[in-house]
Each structure stands twice: as C-alpha cells, then as structure tokens.
Design brief:
elongated; 153 residues; mainly alpha
C-alpha cells in the first residue's frame, strides 16, 4: 500500500496518518534517511513539544484553581475540601512527573506562571460565581510552594 501511494504521488501523511507513522519508524530503523518525509516529521516532533507545554499549562492552571478554591471559596469549603485536596495532590504528582521527564519545561512554567495564575482566577470566578477580586491578584505562593506536597493555603 505504501509503495502504491508513492507511485501515485499521494502523500501518505495526508491519507493515512497511522500508516505514515509506521512507515516513518521503519525508515528510521533502517536508517533510510533519504526517503523520509522530513517536512512532516519535523512538524510532528515540534508538535510533541507544544503538546507537552499545553499539558503542563493545563495541569498548573488546575492546581492553582484548586488551591484558590481551598483557600478562598469559604461557602463550599466544608463540603468540598477533601475532593479539592485530592485534586491538588493529583495535579502536583502529574506536574512533577512531567517536569521529571522534561526538566527544561520548568523554565517555560516560570515564564508563563503569572498568566496561568490569572487564568485560574478567572476560571474560578466563573465557576464559583464569586467576584474575581475575592481571589488575590498576585500569586498566593511561588511555584516551588505550589508544588510542595505539604503546602496548602
């Protein structure tokens, strides 16, 4: 099938992504570098990095949001605090795993921390129905504190 697609000048990447992956892996294993689809391979590798960043952004926003819930959403605290603490632990563990696998992403996290904090405030204001100014405008803790298993607001 791969050979047939090559003969018709059809781009395997566009017609059967899974088959493109298998074909690319086979070419890499055989060190057949001349016949690799370099353009799409480069895009895919770059996409992996973007995906890791987006995952870390999502996890960190969720962590901040739940820490803010625990610290500032008083009317729901007694009923939800155990669930929120579980979520906080889960987010921390996932973030630590991501940073262990790609330590250089810590620098990225530092760069976007303030933006993620503001995103979490906005999301929580929407979720809780509380005015956004209930939640501190400045981060409630450093990244290191937020990731510390023993720290809670």
């Amino acid at each position: 099938m791969v050979a047939e697609l090559r003969k018709t000048n059809t781009n395997l990447y566009d017609t059967d992504y899974n088959l493109w992956i298998l074909d690319t892996v086979q070419k890499l294993q055989c060190k057949d570098l001349d016949s690799l689809d370099w353009e799409n391979l480069i895009e895919e590798v770059l996409g992996l990095g973007r995906s890791d960043k987006r995952k870390l952004e999502s996890l960190m926003t969720g962590l901040i949001e739940h820490l803010l819930k625990l610290g500032y959403w008083q009317s729901e605290r007694n009923y939800n605090q155990n669930h929120w603490r579980r979520e906080i632990r889960n987010f921390r563990k996932q973030i630590k795993r991501e940073l262990k696998a790609s330590p250089s992403l810590k620098n990225y996290l530092v760069q976007i921390f303030d933006e993620l904090y503001q995103d979490a405030r906005e999301l929580l204001a929407d979720d809780s129905g509380l005015p956004i100014d209930i939640f501190p405008e400045q981060p409630i803790a450093s990244i290191e504190q937020l990731l510390d298993e023993d720290w809670l607001p």
